[in-house]
Amino acid sequence: MKTTIRIYTALVFIFLYLPIAVMVLYSFNSINSTGVFGGFSLRWYRELFRDTETLTALRNTLILAVISSLVATVIGTAAAVGIDKMRKRWVKSVTLAVTNIPMVNPEIVTGVSMMLLFVFGARLVNASGVLGFWTILIAHITFNLPYVILSVLPKLRQIDPHLQEAAQDLGCPPLKSFFLAVFPTILPGVLTGAVMAFTLSLDDFVISYFTSGPEFQTLPIRIFAMTKKRVTPDIYALSTMLFAAILILLIAINVLQARSEKQQSKKKY
Amino acid sequence: MNKRSLGARLAAAPYMVWSVLFVVAPLIMVGYYAITDSTGAFTVANFAQLGTYSDIFIRSIWFSLIATLICLVIAYPIAYTIAMRRERSQRVLVMLVMLPMWMNFLLRTYSWMAILEDTGVINTLIGYFGIKPFHMINTPGAVILGMVYNFLPYMILPIYSVLAKLERSMIEAAQDLGAGRFQVLTKIILPHSMPGIASGLTMVFVPSVSTFYISQKLGGGKFDLIGDTIERQFQTSYNYHLGAAISFVLMILILVCISVLNKFTVDDEGGLLI
Amino acid sequence: MTGTESCIISLRGVTKYYNGEAVLRGINLDIHDKEFITLLGPSGCGKTTTLRIIGGFVTPDEGDVYFNGRRVNDVPPYKRPVNTVFQKYALFPHLNVYDNIAFGPRLRKVPESEISRRVKEMLELVNLRGFERRSVNSLSGGQQQRVAIARALINDPKVLLLDEPLGALDLKLRKDMQVELKNIQQQMSITFIYVTHDQEEALSMSDTVVVMDTGEIQQIGTPEEIYNEPDNAFVADFIGESNILDGTMVSDFDVVIFGRHFECLDKGFEKNEAVDVVVRPEDIDIVSVEEGMLSGVVTNVTFKGLHYEIIIDIEGFKWMVQTTDFWPVAAVVGIKIDPDAIHIMKKSKYSGAFGDYSSFSEELDKLSELEAQPEQPPVEEEIID
Asked: Domains plus CATH for chain C?
């Protein structure tokens, strides 16, 4: 029984990692093939750094992810605080329902619906070619917001409801009391939301595809354009590097988390 | 009403304005475009045309259903195995399940193309053993495999998170009351994991039924799905009105699916299941 | 408004509505300097709302709040010379013990050296020497409680507000903290306004007890007055055990219960006025039928440690008697009540609501107590130091 489970688990993980392994392997291929392995070489990594279009797309993606996640974190955290304080039941449930829309709606519908809004808006003011940096930024902020809100809200529910009052009681004006007493307490939720928003933005293809224009390409859009034809392994080289970066980041986060948890438990006893 | 909390409640105002502008208004736009023609006049022609796409709708739903069920069958034992581990290895395993999702999904799908091709990785490998190549790419099976592969983690994670919360003492109590292994599974574990299963089903079905990249790459364009049709209206034939009508129907379809499944998921916390 | 000037805090006709329902109706209350005053009542009686109005977290819809004769209705909490110890302490989880206590003085830009001296002083006061660098999350409930008190007291408030501060502690620790709180109040010689639903706590700590119910003050008095001379049936029933009977005041010092005349110490009622009569269970003697003023049958006996609790059925009314003598069930006994054990109250809206002990059972009593306080289950306490 135990071995069956082990073998089964192993098979599923092989399935999950097979395409990634293939990608990593062929990024080191010495010949231009994604089927035959000609030998080890760093040729595609070198070519990657000469491909200015891909590098621009990478830069665009990072800019977009940073700005959209920052804006979404600010608006979303404020929104979560507001939602938490809402007294009227129906206002709260309507707001939460609207928050859920971008998460349950298929990405393609979210994408085309925003595209239609932008096109319609442009027609109203007789502008053309509106799709570009600003529209894709708005789209990214929009789909990031729910994730920020839903990671901050539970933290707000957990904290002592009198925390802010306690700060005011000790002589702190209302707004300052929020930043001194409440904000540090919900900070983990805010950070989780920000990281989630950042990675979602980094990875998004479908919504970006419908809301961006030719002059602002993100990496996923660039990859899409490349895979329309036969890809060369330099894109494999890029994704291998991205994968390695993410892997290192995740391991670092995990190690840090484990360490702080250890300290916490030490303090307790 | 306490006026001092007014400021706090106003904090949600920017978000609410944003939601109206960029979540609600776009959905209204979909409805508006669906019932108008290019001159802006009211028409039902867009919906009338949908009849010709019925086989695409049926194929999309059929493929996605198969993919969703395969995901469930594969995911449940894995989720269960992970949930029964010690906490430390649980965390590592969950991380391993999530990790592939951090890789660009276009590339992962493209990589499957390289694996399944007639001259691809698998056929090259088995060629070394003198086995004749299989034809795998550009078949319905390849499309469904692409769906299963891309969305499997969305099934594993919600099921895992409900199973991880399952009290072991509950299983012990059932055993103490005379339940056998099979009865523990059917009477305790399965009912308890229903919310996770329901949420996994939606999280796999929704992206499967609306995908367009997977079918293009692994189906060779031979098996158009709803997503392909919508994409074409917006990116090549520029018939936004027909595209909006199809999107509208897709939305309704998914709304129905979710409301049916919602009967199982009573998660009033409103939190994410993963 | 006489007296307003001599009081540190006065409430005049304070009324508060929530969703159209009055939770406080016309509260008039004078709080004197250096007084330990307790707002006592069941949950929902308005005691916490009253405290929050004094703290400035709730604005009254009608009526006025005065601090030293100055109207403070619109003064926000951070400008009021009072500090609060919150129900679940509301310590700042991201700050350690020292920084929590230093929070107030830092806002007032007190020099850091002075703060360090004062924090030390406060930690001495609450018996937490050497806890400066501890994380507040690692403290036990009782210790967190002390930090909350220190955090409030370091600001030298004229008045300290305490909202059920011992509600989350277990019984033993609660008793110790009661004594300690009283000591701290006397040592600092400031006013404490204390909110609780625990009548024993109220009686043992307070100079003045304010009994509240349904948004109104039922009685204000010293613990002795409240216990010995309750104003109405609610107070009599809420504070300790009581037998509350219907009686008629035929003349001064003469009340009729069960058709029999009893001598009492009360006067000033109208002739033949219907009244509520309170007799505390510990003030009743069980004697032989011949010696008894009334006689009945023992229906229930419970051993309570210090005494027996005996239920006696007298002509259908179930009396509770607390005595050190044992009487078996079914024994026919008489009871004797001294004149000073009888207390006469005017009829009120509570008359008849609190009857005899016919449906009396320990479990029921406990259950209803739990129901009344759902928001604060007692927390298991482990003392670490």
From this structure: 9-228 (3.40.50.300), 243-353 (2.40.50.140)
